[in-house]
Amino acid sequence: MHRLAVMGGGSLGLLLAGKLAAAGLPAELWTRTEEQAARIAESGLTLEERDGSVAVRRIEAVPFEEVTPGFDGIVLIALKQTSMDGRLLRTLGRKLGMNAGTVLFQNGIGHVERVSGALPGRRLLAAVTTEAALRSGPSSVRHTGSGETWIGEWEPLSAASDKNGMADLISGVEQALKKAGFSASVSNEIRERMLRKLLINAVVNPLTALWRVPNGELTATPERRLAMDALFRETAGVLRQNGLHGAKDSELWEDVLRVCRATAANRSSMLQDVTAGRETEIDALNGAVCRMAAASGRDAPWNAAVTALVKAIQSPKERGV
Ligand code: KPL
Q: Considering the chain, what percentage of its residues have pLDDT values greater than 70?
């Protein structure tokens, strides 16, 4: 069995780590701070399941800087795009051995290229998940919405790639996620999945953050639905020019509504960031849509507006300006 590590002690990272540990898998958690690792070492990781049951799981928690170089297992990276700066990627490059496999769970796009550039020769998978979780403290998390997780190779294998190694990584990740109780499947079209998820996030995240409502309340009034619909149409149009194909607009719209229903009580990751005074992923979501639109010579006024408005929520102090 592969050694497993979850990198990132936010909502998704704690959920993944807690559920892998609950399934008895050999998982450890890499945190960004020493304080969080110490807290989890002391009191365990508290996981509240969908049915309301609560259990404390023991899991080895290690501050990322102290991870022993040469890790050759599978690392599930559950950090926000905003945390994945050049310094962190260089450190990751030193921590991972040449046989390590990496799975990227970030929202948005652009991260796979950046990470693969920083980890030459390592096997890399992208993951898309619609699981929802809420971190209630440094060592506790609530599973607030069950979703689907897809994993897949970013680029089709070249003739020179290690096909066996890649197949082993894919099945190792799929089995571990399933054993942990997630609905996981392998996708041969992970870029399409990422674009579909980007469309969901580009509608749900900024609007929930601006209106300060849980996902289920986005559709509560005709006025909100009007804004959702406008942002959806514009974003879908831009993404269609950038590789999104295969599904009709009505199916994509149904995807958005399904996520709002399935995660009705959940506060989106962007709303959580805004209320905690953290930097948001707006640049990797609606900002990325604006950049794609500009590259194909079109405007994306709704995306530009929500990007500007979300950025303006943060106070100068929080932004370090
Ligand atoms: O991915 C999410 C997020 O909050 O970032 C959704 C699916 C919208 C769940 O809240």
A: 97
